[in-house]
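Risk register update: the risk of archive-format incompatibility is retired. Evidence:
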Amino acid sequence: MKKSVLGIFLALAMCFSLFAFAVPQTASAESFSDVSEGSYCYDAVCWAVSKDITKGTGASLFSPNMPCTRAQAVTFIWRAEGCPEATLTANPFTDVSAKSFCYDAVLWAAETGITTGTSATAFSPNKTCTRGEIVTFLWRSQGCPAPESAECPFTDVPENAYYRDAVLWATEQGITLGTTDTTFSPDKTCTRGQIVTLLYRMQQLQKQGCAPVFNGTFLQSWYSCTWDDARWQAEIAAMQQAGIKYLILQDTAEKASRTDGGKWTVYYDSELDTFSDAAFSDADVIEAALRNCSGSGIQVFIGLSMFDDFWTEGANTSQYKDVCRVAAAMAKEIYAKYHADYADAFGGWYFPPELNNMPICQLNILGICSGINILIDTLNELDASLPLMLSPFNSDYLSLGSSAASFDWKQFFRHTNLRDGDIFAPQDAVGAGWTKEENLRRNWEMYRKAVDSAEADVQLWANCENFITNIEDSFGSGVITRPATENTESVTATLDRFVNQLKIASEYCDNIITFSYNHYFSPYAVSSVYMDTYLDYVAKGYVLESNAPGEITNCYKGQYDANVLITWDEPEDDFGIAYYKIFKDGTFLTRIECCYGLDYTQFYDWNADVSAEYSIIAYDAAGNASPAAIAQG
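Archived output:
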C-alpha cells in the first residue's frame, strides 16, 4: 500500500473514531454478592438471569453452592425451553400441587419423557438433584441423542446405569467433563451453580448451527485456468474425500487498477463489449468447472467481476457501480451460456469485492448497497432460486472499531435487497492477519446479530482461512497494521489454529467453507500431512490428534567457508512433519516449511560461526512439537 493511501486511512480512522455507536451490554450477575466475575458459573448466571430462568434466592443472593432440587432442575429446563404449555391434564404425581411453582414444568417434563418421577405417583420435588439425574434430564430434553462412542472414560458409570448414554453424550458435547479424568460422580448432589452452568452449555450447543468442519472451498481462476480435465477430476476426487459440496470460483473477470492500465483479464469465453480489449485465459474456467463437477454432487458458485481499485476507492467513485453493472451483464451471459447444460452443478453466484469495516468501505456503505441491488435485480430476472454469496471481512487494523462495524453491517442488511437463501459468508480473516484469533467470537456474534436483523432468511456461512500470510515488520506492526509473522512465505496453517477457527464459527454459523482447500490442503498442491491430519480429526469425532513428533536424531553442525551447515534426520510422527523452527543461541532464527512435500533436513546459516549453539524443534500438522535437539559438532 502506498504511503499516501496509508495516510488517508489513518486520518480517516482518527476522524471516525470520534464517533462511537452504542452497543448493548451483556447481562450481568452483579446484583448477586455471592457470584464473582471470576466464578466458573458467572456467565451461566448472567445468562440465566437475563432469560428469566431464575432470579436467585434473595435480593442479592444466587446461592450457587446450594443443592438444587428436582423441582428447581425441571423448572430451569422448562423456562430455558420457553415455558411450553403441557397438554397433559391429569397430574400423575400426588406430591406436586397445582399451586406449586414447578407444577407446569413437571407436567411438561412428564409429558415429554424428561422424567418419569421417582415412582409411578411421586415426583419427589424437594429431593436434591444428582449429577446423574440432571444430565439425564438435559439429554432427554434434546430427544435422547445417541452418543458417538460406547466407550466411557468414567469408572463410576456402570454399563447398565440409566444415565450412561446421557453421561456419554454430555461429555462428548462438552456440557460436562466429569469431576476427574476417570470419575463422573453420578450420585453427587448438583448445586444451583452447576445446574445453570450445564444448562447454559447445552443452550450454547443448541446455538451451534453446524459441525466444526468445512464443506466448501474458494478457488482462484488464475490457478485453475491451467488445469486439464485429468487435473480437474483428480482435484474433484480429493475434494469429495474431504467432504466438499461447494466450489466457489473467485473472480472470473478482473480489472487492473488505473495505475496498472485498467485492463480486464477474463477467464471464460465472453462476448461482452466491456471485454473487447481484455486479456483472455487459454481455458474457459467456468465451463471446465461446471462440466467436471457435473454429476459429482459439488455445486459451483460462479464468481463475477472484481476491480483492483476497490482497495483504494471502495464505493466512493463511480467505478464500483460500473463493476456492479458489469457483474450483472456477466451473469446474464453466463446463465445463457452454461445453465441449461450444467443445471445440476450450477449452484449460484459470488460477487468478489470484499466488503470490510475499513473507512474506504464504511464511508459509503449505502453506495455499496445500491450497487449490490443492481446485481440482485438482474439475478432475480434470471433465476431467483440461485443464491448470491458475499464474503466480507472484519479488520482489527486501519478500521473504525467493532461498534462502527456492527452498526454498518445492520445498515447493510437494511438497505440491500438480499433474498431468502442468499449467503453472507464472512472471511474470519485470521489467515490474512486482519483479525486476531482472540477476537473471533466477538466478530461472529456481531455477524450473527447483523444477519438476524435482515428481513430475508439470509444464511450465515463462515469462510475460515486455512493459511498463514507472510507479513513483515512494519511501522505500527500489531497496532495499526497487521502484526508480522515468523514464517517466510504464505503457507498452510497447522490444524490446532484452524480447528479452533472451525469450532468457534460452528457456534454461530449455518455452514463453514474455507479459503482454500485447493490452494492449501489439496494433495496436488501441498504435503498430504495436513489433509491426513484433518481427516483423522473428522473421523475421531472432531478431536485433533495430540501425539508429538519423536526426537530429532543425528543433528549436526559444521563450518563451511563462512557459513554453518546444520543437518538432521526427520523424526517419526503419526502423519509427518509440517515445519521446523531453528534457534541460534536461544533466539529464534528461522522457520523451515515442509508444506510443499520437500524433505527439508538441512539449513545453511550464512556468514555465521559454528561456535554458536543451534537447536531445532519439529512441528506436525496438528501443531504438536517435538523435543528440542541441539546440533552437535
